[in-house]
Amino acid sequence: MNIIHRRGWDMPEHLATPEHLVFSRRALLVGGASALAMLPAAARAADSKWQHYPVPDLYPAKRNDKFKLDRAITAEKINDNYNNFYEFGTSKYIAEASQALKIEPWTIKIDGLVEKPQEIGIDDLIRKMTLEERLYRHRCVEAWSMAIAWTGFPLAKLVAFARPLGAAKFVQMTTFMDPKMAPGQNLSWFPWPYIEGLTMAEATNDLAFIATGCYGHPLDKQHGAPIRLAVPWKYGFKSIKSIVRFTFVDKQPAGMWQKIQPSEYGFWANVNPQVPHPRWSQATEEVIGTGERRPTLLFNGYGEYVADIYKGMEGHQMWM
């Protein structure tokens, strides 16, 4: 195995998307009809797409340069058309089917071991936070990867907003349940709704991120609009989409894939090239859109941020 002597998140500045190429929708929204009239028809149509998404005026957000990459960002067109969203089917090409997702209205419930359970509309929640853009690697348990420009806020800020009690040890996240809208939820062998969880130490780690947008605009539906989790040191199935509920609990929650096959999809799901999936190796990964295979990095290259969480837990099966 080649040993790369550089920090896992380092990226040459020339690989980052230049700011002048990021389309400023906020300027359009405040500029009025005259500014829109001067734009090409394709640009006006692209902007109008986001009118019914939460807080479109907050995008694009300022990039947090603390989080860098060792590779180029995956092209949005590729990312938009290769992803999982099992609520709408088992195909990777789920973008069209996922447009049935209804995101208005969207309410977030915060309950469990908190000082005061509450419900809050997605627009109100996002406006209480300060949005930022982060460049993260994304590593699927199926041994493929991407690099994505997420917009959102640290999960730690939502935890602080929720005001959990001292007895809370885990954050359980739940997605919507609507089989009429999402036909995949009619498949009885999946234990719907989709649930995932983190320990409080993981949830309050600086790297844990709530994504509300990507590529300088609100989240597309196939990416889990209007709000999803991004935990880049873990395999992608942990990054639950279209969240409607955050529940603070004292017992470890079982995720959907963990319920289906615990020997293959465990609670921790930390990326490790030395621990194979029972049916394939995790030593390398295919970088989608490039045809390139790269060596998999421990914790997906984010050990500097998260390795301390797991000190003293060597006896736990932290990788699957």
Task: Report what the structure shows.
The chain is an alpha+beta fold and 320 residues long. It has a single domain, classed as Oxidoreductase, molybdopterin-binding domain (Sulfite Oxidase, Chain A, domain 2), CATH 3.90.420. The chain is 16% helix and 21% strand. The protein is built from 9 helices and 12 strands. Strands 3, 4, 7, 8, 9, 11 and 12 form a 7-stranded mixed sheet that branches. A 5-stranded mixed sheet has the order 2-1-10-5-6. The protein is globular, with a radius of gyration of 19 Å. The chain starts with 24 loop residues before the first helix and ends in a 14-residue tail after the last helix.
Number of helices: 9
User: Poorly predicted ranges (pLDDT <50, ≥5 residues)?
Assistant: 1-39
Strand content: 15-25%
Helix content: 10-25%
Layout of helices and strands, plus pairs?
Elements: H1 25-31, H2 33-37, H3 41-48, H4 76-80, E1 107-112, E2 118-121, H5 122-127, E3 132-139, E4 144-154, H6 155-162, E5 170-175, E6 195-199, H7 200-203, E7 209-214, E8 217-218, E9 228-230, E10 243-249, H8 256-260, E11 284-287, E12 292-295, H9 303-306
Quick tags:
320 residues, alpha+beta, 7-stranded mixed β-sheet, Sulfite Oxidase, Chain A, domain 2, globular, 21% strand, 5-stranded mixed β-sheet, single chain, disordered N terminus
